């Protein structure tokens, strides 16, 4: 038997200062904050959402997942619970923020990152088990605008992109650490547009914040993942960036050194056909075959 229910977190979570959440790894003093489930931590630059997919029996696994995975991990958690495999306790933020939390002692069992870079960093810090790493999903990069916007641009034409956006407020994830921002910067640089657009760029602490600003019409355009664009009726997709303009967007999973033994079961479940079908239903792209079969390119 299983059920979807919320659960209070009684143990404290370690939260870094705002300035550290999207920056390259740098150890600084953490601030200890005791928090409860369903409490929005407004003092941070990211959102913690903790939900519990509880089986009547089974271990509780703490899953720290990239913000762009919220809906799909919730559904995968339900499917996982239906098999009586245990409980998922999920925390969502940018991959950069989560990596910093894990590095500083947050009690994660599994880390789901929107790129391999933060997985690799935690392996190098001996926080993640390199033998556990696995690719789990893929995504695409899109330009979005508020639903009522008439923005129209050919994303294969760098000059047209520059002209269309040079007087617009464009939001992307902070490329200093947020994977969505890193991919966005790559795409704009590939199209020879990044330098010209720097004066109009606004950096968000995670991709869902960028999506929200566009949906609220607080900016003129944004660059997000294709799956993010599908969840909001208040935005429209202007176009897809050429796949060759940015590195393949691959989500990776890894198990921490302090994880419960059952964490590897969840990694295997993420790569099962059941979970992969759920990723597909949520609009995630099919992983290239050579990447789908790979498990350890992130080893240092």
What is the structure about, briefly put?
The protein is α/β, with parallel strands linked by helices.
Specify the CATH architecture of the largest domain.
3-Layer(aba) Sandwich
Order of helices and strands: EEEEEHEHEHEEHEHHEHEHEEHHH
Highest CATH level, the class of the largest domain: Alpha Beta
CATH-level-4 superfamily name of the largest domain = Periplasmic binding protein-like II
In terms of quaternary structure, what is this?
single chain
Q: Mean pLDDT, nearest integer? A: 81
- The general outline is elongated
Annotation, overall tally of beta strands? 14
Radius of gyration from the alpha-carbon trace, in angstroms? 19 Å
Give the low-confidence spans: 1-56, 295-300
Strand arrangement within the widest β-sheet reads 1-4-6-5-7-14-8
Taking the alpha carbons of the first and last residues, their distance comes to: 41 Å
CATH topology title of the largest domain: D-Maltodextrin-Binding Protein, domain 2
Structural class: alpha/beta
Helical content, roughly? 25-40%
